[in-house]
Please model this.
Amino acid sequence: MEYLFMLDLSSQEMLLSDLAEVAVLFECCGHKPDEPAHDFYLNHALTFVYSLHILLPVFGAEENASILIRSVWLLMILSYVTQQRPLLQGYIVEDLTIPTSTTWQHICSEVTSGEALHGKFLDPHFLRAVRNLKELGKRNTHQENFYRKAAVKLKME
Model:
């Protein structure tokens, strides 16, 4: 439980950005290179973090916000530990080269186009992960390219 209280809540915006980055690492970088493995539980970290952006303005009070953020942090820790602490290799996403012309509209249209509608493209968890990456990228504009790379990575796997 000490990890739960080690979380620095002094800068909520920075914390949400950091949690989003960890969620992307959970989703895209918790496997061996060239051996992609979708993890149902680690996938939900993206949804947890995105939901914070939606729920925090509703909760308002700082005490309620800290409880909500710590709860998401706890769920992320539990997901990570129960999945046997996979090695998160950030270079898997960071080293991915995508054309500068790659837009969210392009990524989303490829994911939802008629030609791609098979296998993982029909999985609502996959579609939600791509949408969450898009929304988190819009909120964290300084790292939007990182989120686009992660979405392309998911699509390619």
About this structure: Residues 58 and 99 are 38 Å apart (CA to CA). The mean pLDDT is 86. The chain has eight helices and no strands.
